Amino acid sequence: MNCLQLIIVSTLICYCVGVDTNLALKKPVSKSSEWYSAAWAVDGNADSNHMNMHCYHSAESPAWWYVNLEKVYAVNGVVITNRQDCCSERINGVKVFVFENVEDAKLSESLKSDTAHLCGVATNKAVISIDCSGKVGQYVVIYKGDAGFLSLCEVEVHGSSAPCS
pLDDT class for 96, splitting at 50, 70, 90? Predict the structure, then answer.
């Protein structure tokens, strides 16, 4: 098994990566605003038709949404199911971040220029895969800094925190 070793303040922390588990499924979420439920983005239903009531939709912009994984993981990647019944282009430019601290995760001003926690930027596709390369954190943040609404039909977070062997 491949392991990612991180040395933080003289303490060795080892995360085994490669386990394909959706860490976000039914985990607590938060958002900057809500038109439709933020929890629908982690309900396990990847239906991309917003009118079927399985997609989160923000009420304002700029907008952020995050999932609390409830413990620290090495995040390999994030998969976003984009809205397909209309407005799929709204996902263009949306940024995906991984943070250890919830306060950092909610500071939308800092998200405009943060590159240390950035996994990648979304483009208009039905299903978007963002590589996080084992970034370590408890909160996965999705941020839309420009005009328009943020819609997320499903968000999966893949990674692991299993002890290395």
Answer: very high
